[in-house]
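pasting for ref
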Amino acid sequence: MAVMRIAVAGSSGLIGTPLVRSLRADGHEVVRLVRRPPQGADEARWDPAAGTVDADALRGVDAVVNLAGAGIGDKRWTAAYKKELRDSRILGTAALARAIAAAEAPPKVFLSGSAIGYYGDTGDRAVDETAPAGEGFLAELCVEWEAATLPAEEAGVRVAHLRTGLVVAAEGGAWGPLMRAFRLGVGGRLGDGRQYWSFISLRDTVAAIRFLLDAESVRGPVNLTAPDPVTNAEVTKAVSRALRRPALFPVPKFALRTVLGGLADDVLSSQRAIPSVLRNAGFGFADPTIDLALAAALRK
């Protein structure tokens, strides 16, 4: 990859932090888009809620990576938090897409976040990027989220939608609470455990984003998931092995709904997403299995 100047929104998050570190380690110039007053030449101001991006933020930028958005598992899904989840993604993405389209010299590529929630509950059925949108809050959110990139696409910028699966990390994301429960000895499968979890290791997530920055033929939806999704019961056994903790306490559906609200339905839903675009483009996974993904997370 040639040395690039890359703007990153969501640069302090679970994926953004190691992505920025990786890019800078290889000599790329990273501009972090922040919602507070910039504290250095490597930062630029934007306001997702207001839909504004500083005029100079994208000057000379070769690529934009958008990872911004309120955490899916951070809070109980009240009506107010659902609005925050939606607005933090759609308003911010639309603001970036408009700024990209208006730039004097637009960046060549816009990699914008999305999620495998796009497919809804797929049960045992494997789906790749050609599958239609499903039903439910997350599916509808992802459809709107991806549509918000339209101004950049109409300006001729290569746009890829990062339909990211469950990123395996020791802390943060969907896996943080799971790991903590197991360390406390109260881990177990969720519901009946038959729902598929389309996972991906954190380092494969970063590597895939970097791969897509340079993959000129790839545009549109891209599943960021490992090649072989596993069921929640298989995840439970793998975490139990990795942490050497028992998996004794299955969590019933009613308890999940009490604690998580609307998020429970998505935790219990099944998404068996296959990364056809990445595989066909020649991307190689460092952690193709759940055991390797867990080992990579726990080494950190």
